[in-house]
């Protein structure tokens, strides 16, 4: 996977925040060296968050997010402010743009309070130093001029110093050793992207190759014959969760088995919570509301897993009249109290900060949360087998 193909979920997310007309978009354009955002003297030119995946030296792959003015007015302004708050949930580094001719305002201080509450490292950038001298003394403050480029290089260096440490987590490589055979089961059905594999499958293959193991990719109806003809017992079989039942039946008990979705739950940091939450399926009653949440938006196919298959399997398993609601992309409800269970996708398109934020929202509101692969394995009676590769977690399951 080339640098330009780095998934957004593993890029450093840098959000630019501030009042209208403080010069956020001008600073974003100066930092990126591109006309990423529309610039105008008219207040409120940026009406929706603007995102751009790019390489920003000395940081590397980043996702730049320019947000609407936080002091926006009226009913539309309220919606824009709410959107800005949602952006904070996935921001790794926050950049507060302050108009240097005005100084720090109450609006700016409110944003700093939000950064601190969410424990987001941030910089305070005083723009328009070409119009007035810069004297701010607070920590992590810098003066710049988007107009003439003054201080922009220093700003990039400071951003690099605030970047989170490189994620040492691996999807599966820490569970394998050089020379292992890993069999990946990838169904090719109507819901699969035409001509390509979905992101977790691509990332897992790359991680296996990086560990000097061998990735063997098959369709579900080829698994049994492949295992019989290999001549060497594979260390593990990893399957798309939708094929869990057939793959479990075709994989001998002495071969470890798990799913891409379960591995992604661990990679994103909420596997333990998701395994704990899945037992809530057995407590569901008629009329209970279930939220099925996806981190990406995609064209819905006729047998879509989130909107069709999972609701069907839930109702078949529980034999209850459940109310199923769905959400996708960046939208995730802040108030979750109406739900008896949340079932989330693997989160491959979300960065770890946002996945952890969503799990924390559920935990704080005492709403159980699990993910696709764990829920499917549980309903098919193979959860214990599918987490056998994680001994500490395996021992907690009765």
Structural commentary:
It is a single chain. The chain is an alpha/beta fold and 398 residues long. The chain contains 14 helices and 14 strands. The strands form three sheets. A six-stranded mixed β-sheet has the order 2-3-1-4-5-6, sandwiched between helices. β13 (339-344), α11 (352-364) and β14 form a beta-alpha-beta unit. The protein is globular. The two termini are 40 Å apart.
Strand content: 15-25%
Shape: globular
Strand order of the largest sheet: 2-3-1-4-5-6
Largest sheet: 6 strands, mixed
The helix-and-strand class reads alpha/beta
| Uncertain runs | 38-47
Number of strands: 14
Along the chain, the helix and strand elements come as EHEEHEHEEHEHEHEHEHHEHEEHEHHH
Tell me the Rg in angstroms.
24 Å
Helix proportion of residues, in percent? 25-40%
pLDDT averaged residue by residue? 86
Intertermini distance: 40 Å
Give me the number of helical elements: 14
């Amino acid at each position: 996977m080339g640098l330009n193909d780095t998934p957004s979920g593993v890029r450093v997310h840098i959000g630019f925040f501030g009042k209208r007309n403080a010069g956020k978009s001008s600073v974003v354009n100066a930092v990126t060296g591109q006309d990423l955002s529309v610039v105008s003297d008219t207040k409120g030119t940026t009406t929706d968050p603007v995102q751009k995946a790019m390489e920003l030296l000395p940081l590397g792959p980043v996702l730049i997010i320019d947000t609407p003015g936080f002091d926006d007015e009226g009913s539309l302004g309220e919606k824009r402010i709410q959107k800005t708050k949602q952006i904070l949930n996935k921001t790794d580094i926050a950049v507060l743009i302050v108009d240097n001719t005005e100084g720090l305002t109450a609006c700016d201080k409110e944003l700093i309070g939000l950064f601190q509450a969410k424990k987001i490292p941030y910089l305070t950038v005083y723009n328009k130093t070409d119009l007035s001298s810069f004297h701010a003394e607070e920590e992590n403050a810098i003066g710049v001029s988007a107009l003439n480029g003054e201080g922009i290089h220093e700003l990039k260096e400071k951003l690099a110093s605030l970047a989170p440490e490189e994620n040492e987590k691996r999807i599966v490589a820490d569970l394998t050793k050089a020379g292992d055979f890993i069999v990946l089961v990838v169904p090719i059905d109507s819901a699969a992207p035409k001509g390509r594999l979905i992101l977790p499958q691509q990332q897992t293959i790359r991680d296996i190759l990086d560990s000097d193991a061998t990735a063997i990719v098959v369709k579900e109806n080829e698994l049994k014959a492949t295992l019989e003809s290999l001549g060497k017992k594979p260390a593990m079989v990893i399957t798309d969760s939708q094929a869990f039942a057939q793959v479990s039946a075709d994989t001998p008990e002495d071969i470890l088995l798990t799913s891409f979705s379960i591995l992604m739950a661990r990679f994103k940091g909420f596997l333990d919570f998701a395994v704990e939450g899945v037992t809530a399926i057995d407590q569901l009653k008629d009329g209970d509301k279930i939220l099925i949440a996806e981190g990406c938006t995609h064209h819905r196919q006729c047998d879509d897993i989130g909107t069709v298959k999972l609701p069907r399997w839930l109702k078949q398993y529980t034999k209850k009249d459940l109310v199923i609601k769905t959400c996708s992309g960046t939208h995730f409800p802040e108030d979750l109290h109406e739900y008896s269970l949340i079932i989330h996708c693997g989160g491959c398109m979300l960065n770890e900060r946002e996945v952890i934020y969503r799990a924390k929202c559920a935990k704080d509101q005492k709403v159980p949360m699990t993910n696709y692969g764990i829920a499917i394995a549980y309903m098919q009676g193979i959860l214990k087998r599918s987490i056998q590769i994680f001994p500490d977690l395996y021992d907690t399951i009765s």
